[in-house]
Amino acid sequence: VTDACACDTGGDCECFCTAAAAYAKVCSDHGVCVSWRTPSICPMFCDYYNNEGGCEWHYKPCGAPCMKTCRNPSGRCAYHLPGLEGCYPNCPGDRPYFSEEEMKCVS
Fold this sequence. Notes:
Blueprint: H1 12-29, E1 57-63, E2 84-89, E3 97-99, E4 104-106
Antiparallel strand pairs: 1-2, 3-4
InterPro entries: Mucin_vWF_Thrombospondin_sf (IPR050780), TIL_OTOGL_Mucin (IPR058753), VWF/SSPO/ZAN-like_Cys-rich_dom (IPR014853)
Organism: Micrurus paraensis
Keywords: Disulfide bond
């Protein structure tokens, strides 16, 4: 895969990560989740969103597009949406809802 996706423009790692992300997105669009990132290969730094000492935000290769929020307490989508790669809050049981305004888990 590395040889097939090698690029001469920009940083090779950046180009590889872009190509691999595009491939994973197409798979996700067809209902197949590809967990390809690691801490050493094209990492996604979700810790940026965590408060000091907190650990709510985590990377998910195919996270749920709808989650329990103050505006959507059921966590259900009106339409079927594919899972999206990104950083997602992992809200604990005592604070099960995610507040989009405060960007943190609340009760």
